[in-house]
Amino acid sequence: MNNVIELLKSHTSVRKFKEKMIDDQLLKEIIQASQYASTSNHVQAYTIIRVNDQDKKRTLAKLSGNQPYVEECPVFLVFCADLNRLEKACSINNETIESSSTEIFIMATVDTALIAQNIMIAAESAGLGGVYIGGIRNNPQDVCDLLQIPHHVYPVFGMCLGYPEKINATKPRLPLSLILKEDIYSTDGDEKHLKEYDDLISNYYKERTNNKRSNTWTEGITAFLKEKQRPHMKEFLHSKGFEMK
Ligand SMILES: Cc1cc2nc3c(=O)[nH]c(=O)nc-3n(C[C@H](O)[C@H](O)[C@H](O)COP(=O)(O)O)c2cc1C
């Protein structure tokens, strides 16, 4: 196994950080390296806001559903899908952006996720750890007001980064048989493999030191998915100029 693959297989989200700051140069290098992520048509449709202001971090922690690590982490980044800069690029060339399609929304969101994951991996390769914060979409308009995020830009998620105080055991992932299909989308054997995965995950939850639980993966997912998630998002995205036609 090479080092990159070993690193990928060792990922766990980190929510407790040492007080040690991340060197500015290191952070910039991580972000610059991560910009080499593939990007749809080279549009690079993202902006990252590093939140230094402690009061703002405290507010973001609350807005994200009271997640204390948002305030405590040495570095908090907000990843935005960004059509605003692309609008400017078009206006430099005396044109207007056709921003109303669902496709352009997908493009900007995917681009944002790709650079973010590069940052997570690059950070881990430098001995840092982190966690994504989808919780910033709990109150996305308040996040926009706080960070002065303009029209045609929306906060996709946040990310806490820092030196890990505590590293959790890796969470077992779905077996390859469920996520990798050959030639066609066959679901043969899926139920059996889901049951096996449920056993594996419930053992992991029972044995881990923190946040012990006894439920299975399908139970956890069901409890989550039977509820409508963040029903305000459609209206919010429309209001930000992501019309998704
Ligand atoms: C887009 C996204 C949003 C997430 N939002 C949160 C969050 O708000 N709070 C949190 O504690 N973890 C969050 N996570 C972390 C996931 O819960 C975590 O990645 C998942 O349970 C797998 O665990 P692991 O990363 O430790 O392997 C998020 C992950 C992703 C990819």
Describe this structure in words.
- With 245 residues, the protein is α+β, with helices and mostly antiparallel strands.
- It has two domains: 178 residues, NADH Oxidase (3-Layer(aba) Sandwich), CATH 3.40.109.10; 32 residues.
- 46% of the residues lie in helices and 12% in strands.
- It contains eleven helices and four strands, in the order ααβααβααβαβαααα.
- The chain has a four-stranded antiparallel β-sheet, sandwiched between helices.
- Helix 2 packs across helix 6.
- The chain is globular.
- The N and C termini lie far apart (45 Å).
- The mean pLDDT is 97.
- The site of flavin mononucleotide has 12 residues, from strand 3.
Summarize the structure.
The protein has 245 residues and is α+β, with helices and mostly antiparallel strands. It contains eleven helices and four strands; from the N terminus they run H-H-E-H-H-E-H-H-E-H-E-H-H-H-H.
Any chance you could write out the topology, listing elements then pairs?
Elements: H1 3-9, H2 24-34, E1 46-51, H3 54-63, H4 68-72, E2 75-82, H5 84-92, H6 102-125, E3 129-133, H7 140-147, E4 153-162, H8 176-179, H9 190-207, H10 217-225, H11 233-239
Antiparallel strand pairs: 1-2, 2-4, 3-4
Helix pairs in contact: 2-6
Bound molecules: flavin mononucleotide.
Summarize the main sheet: 4 strands, antiparallel
How many H/I helices? 11
CATH fold-level topology of the largest domain: NADH Oxidase
Architecture (CATH level 2) name of the largest domain: 3-Layer(aba) Sandwich
Question: Poorly predicted ranges (pLDDT <50, ≥5 residues)?
Answer: none
The CATH H-level superfamily of the largest domain is NADH Oxidase
Radius of gyration: 20 Å
**Structural class computed from helices and strand pairing:** alpha+beta
Strands ordered across the widest β-sheet: 1-2-4-3
